[in-house]
Amino acid sequence: MKNEKVLSVFLASPSDVLQERNYLEKLVKQHRKSGYRLEIKRWEKDMPTTSAEKPQEVINRLLPDCDILIGIFWSRFGSPTEKSDSGTLEEIEQFLATKRPVILYFLDKPISPTEIKPEQFQKINEFKEAYKEKNIFTTIKQNSDFDEHIGKDLEYNIEKLENRGDKMTDIPNTGKQTRQTLKTEETLPKYEENSTKLDDNLKFWSEISQN
Question: What pTM does this model have?
Fold first, then answer.
């Protein structure tokens, strides 16, 4: 029976890009790479319903078992959490702090004037400026642009995971969703709670992306 390595892709975004989330989920599931199977994790589908914890705390427990994060921003930056300027940013920071690949897409498409929130756009633009020299985001104008980028972005980052020597679990090709959390021998940096202090965490991924 053929074995496959299962890679879990977490889809992170504020709530204004549902159409794009659905489209990207389809593309990720359709992506084929010999020896791998990609699964999608989405907070609205995989987060259990509970009143015992804050929603972001529950979402954060999904993250350690995920290997790649795809983030999408359009008109909203998201709502603040106890640790960050938005839940989406907190998820991205956790991936960067544990040196896992992050793929970011910023949407450049029309928006109704009544939906414009200047403070949200300001935060998005500040965030883009911080990432501008890091080569980890792409501007998307329409869904068909995802078709051009997602395949090569996934291939590139899967290759980087392989080169880093992460321990990905072989499982029989039975459709089961169980897997082992990726582990690394590297010493992980302290998680940055201040959203303006991304440089140390970004520097590592930027450097190995150039190797």
Answer: 0.76
